[in-house]
User: Fold Inositol-1-monophosphatase from Cryptotermes secundus.
Amino acid sequence: MTENLDECYEIIVKLSKEGGQLIHERIWSKKIVEFKSCEVDLVTETDQQVEKLLISNLKAKFPSHRFIGEESTAAGVKCELTDDPTWIIDPVDGTMNFVHGYPNVCVSVALWVNKVAQIGIIYNPILDLFFSARQGQGAFLNGKPIHVSHENELSKSLIGYEFGTSRDTEKMKVVMGNMNILTPVVHGVRSTGSCAQNMAMVALGGTNANFEFGIHAWDIAAGCLIVTEAGGVVIDPAGGPFDVLSRRYLCACSQDIADQLVKIIKQYYPERD
Ligand code: IPD
Assistant:
């Protein structure tokens, strides 16, 4: 690999902190809110500005790199993952939280090279949680190594769960159905409202597993590396290999828990990114 990953890492740490600062300054101020695919899929001027800040600075430094960004895709840019170094960016993961002033809001950025995640950052600037990972080098929270929990039994697990930003009836049937399946058999279910933060919680050992249908590459591109570098597993919710463009993922602290979940949950297959 010809990329200077140390330099890429140094720059993205600095830029995510700058983006995080904008989020921090604005979370309890008035925002301009617009709808995307439906009335619960929101975007604010801060989502757009943070994405612009990240992409313009990365482009200036690495002109040959490619980008997949949530707001650029919403504006019509094609979402395409090639072997070229590609930054996959969710400037504000948890936009609904940001709009309401609920402090589970993260900048999520990953660098993928040859379709493999090399760098992953999930930064919640409100709660000051800076999760980072590099391929083969472990996962960290605010610079300190983190590890997934050692739990192997689903019945003793705390599960991260989301309702998503779609009102599609078929999808909601599956989401509510899985809630009904899980709540009687696990210790508890928790919803942060940020897919990236849900994945970071598995990496940290705060929850034991988490899965979602209908998310996009930018929600999970950093989290998948942080979870695996913390010792966890990331797979397709039906049990096959993880595919970052499939809009489906399941992550867990152990293969055992992942297998137990795969056996009982209902499946949903959204259109790919
Ligand atoms: C959303 C959040 C939410 C998840 C949705 C995502 P966004 O991302 O991660 O937790 O349930 O599926 O779209 O729109 O806030 O970047």
Summary: Residues 154-264 form a domain with the D-Maltodextrin-Binding Protein; domain 2 fold (CATH 3.40.190.80).
